[in-house]
């Protein structure tokens, strides 16, 4: 099958995987599609709580039509035993698939290549795409295994001149309705959302998701503070303590220039969302403070690369990913 088709079907599987996030957490959200002669016979994504896995759902959907078909799955099928269900590598091997296309090899040492080997031993042709757009969708899984911490997204809503508030402290609302809706969509994809203690005390933020149909996906609430937090919140005293956030694979950092600076200085930001409003504040509160870059060389060494840029109403969103 041509590589262009592989990329197209993998993109469709990745779109399905988005449905699993964050409901499948702390398990990775995976998508799977079974295709034969250009026709989809089965599809699935990781169910709430992590089971059944995407491959099991897609195979159950396809039934006998899976024989001789191609499976597109965003993550290498698991190879380890679990009391919650069979290894997907075994299920896929037994289904008689002619070909399996994998978006990303699994860094989990319990699978890490052994899932692919099991499929090849069963006679399936296996293609590993190493497809970067999809790997971003499993970044929380990878960060947990490689760094023992969540994948961190920092959100900044600012003016054209990089301010998050006027000189008098007024900040609501710098960006428009479309940007705020997009921000709530990002919240719905996170396991937890964090603000600084100053933001918590000054604004008493709800940190919920206010999009119709997604209210139930409001993330856990965390504050970076040495003080007390309201009931239902969790406090950490330093950015490094995000390693102690149990079950959190995707963390969104929202509140305060001091908090943003602390995470940037600690080099704990993997992804940066900058919402820019078409307004100049002049003399307002800067979005970030000193993060330890004394030279341009040090600043460029951060390795941020633009992943996306789009217009949201009258605002502009820029998405940067750390390499």
The proportion of residues in beta strands is: 25-35%
Strand order of the largest sheet: 10-9-8-11-6-12-15-14
Which class do the helix and strand fractions yield? alpha/beta
What distance separates the N and C termini? 31 Å
Explain the overall architecture.
This protein is of the alpha/beta class and about 325 residues long. It is about 25% helix and about 25% strand. It is built from ten helices and 15 strands. It has helices spanning about 5-15, 55-60, 90-95, 115-120, 130-135, 140-145, 175-190, 195-205, 255-265, 295-300, and strands spanning about 30-35, 40-45, 70-75, 100, 125-130, 150-160, 165, 190-195, 220-225, 235, 250-255, 270-275, 285, 305-310, 315-320. It has an eight-stranded mixed β-sheet with strand order 10-9-8-11-6-12-15-14, with helices on both faces. Strand 1 (about 30-35) and strand 2 form a beta hairpin. Helix 3 (about 90-95) runs parallel beside helix 4 (about 115-120). It is elongated and about 65 Å long. It starts with a helix and ends with a strand. The relative contact order is 0.12. The model has no long low-confidence stretch (mean pLDDT about 90). Keywords: Hydrolase, Metal-binding, Multifunctional enzyme, NADP, Oxidoreductase, Riboflavin biosynthesis, Zinc. Pfam families: dCMP_cyt_deam_1, RibD_C. Its cofactor is Zn(2+). Pathway: Cofactor biosynthesis; riboflavin biosynthesis; 5-amino-6-(D-ribitylamino)uracil from GTP: step 3/4; Cofactor biosynthesis; riboflavin biosynthesis; 5-amino-6-(D-ribitylamino)uracil from GTP: step 2/4. In the N-terminal section; belongs to the cytidine and deoxycytidylate deaminase family. In the C-terminal section; belongs to the HTP reductase family.
């Amino acid at each position: 099958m041509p590589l262009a088709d592989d990329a197209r079907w993998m993109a469709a599987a990745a779109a399905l995987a988005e449905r699993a996030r964050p409901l499948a957490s702390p398990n990775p959200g995976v998508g799977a599609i079974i295709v034969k002669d250009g026709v989809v016979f089965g599809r699935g994504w990781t169910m709430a709580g992590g089971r059944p896995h995407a491959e099991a759902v897609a195979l159950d959907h396809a039934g006998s039509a899976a024989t001789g078909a191609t499976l597109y799955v965003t993550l290498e099928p698991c190879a380890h035993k679990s009391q919650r269900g069979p290894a997907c590598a075994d299920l896929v091997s037994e289904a008689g698939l002619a070909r399996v296309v994998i978006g990303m090899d699994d860094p989990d040492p319990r699978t890490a290549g052994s899932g692919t080997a099991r499929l090849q031993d069963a006679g399936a042709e296996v293609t590993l795409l190493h497809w970067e757009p999809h790997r971003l969708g499993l970044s929380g899984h990878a960060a947990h295994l490689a760094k023992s911490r969540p994948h961190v997204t920092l959100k900044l809503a600012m003016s054209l001149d990089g301010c998050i508030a006027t000189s008098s402290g007024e900040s609501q609302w710098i960006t428009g309705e479309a940007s705020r809706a997009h921000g709530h969509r990002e919240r719905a994809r996170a396991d937890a959302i964090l603000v600084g203690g100053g933001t918590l005390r000054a604004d008493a933020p709800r940190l919920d998701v206010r999009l119709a149909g997604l209210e139930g996906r409001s993330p856990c609430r965390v504050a970076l503070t040495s003080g007390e937090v309201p009931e239902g919140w969790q406090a950490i005293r330093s950015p490094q303590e995000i390693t102690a956030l149990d079950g959190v694979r995707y963390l969104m950092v929202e509140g305060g220039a001091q908090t943003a600076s602390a995470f940037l200085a600690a080099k704990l930001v993997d992804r940066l969302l900058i919402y820019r409003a078409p307004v100049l504040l002049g003399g307002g509160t800067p979005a970030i403070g000193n993060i330890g870059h004394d030279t341009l060389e040090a600043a460029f060494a951060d390795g941020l690369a633009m992943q996306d840029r789009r217009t949201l109403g009258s605002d502009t969103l820029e998405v940067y990913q750390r390499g």
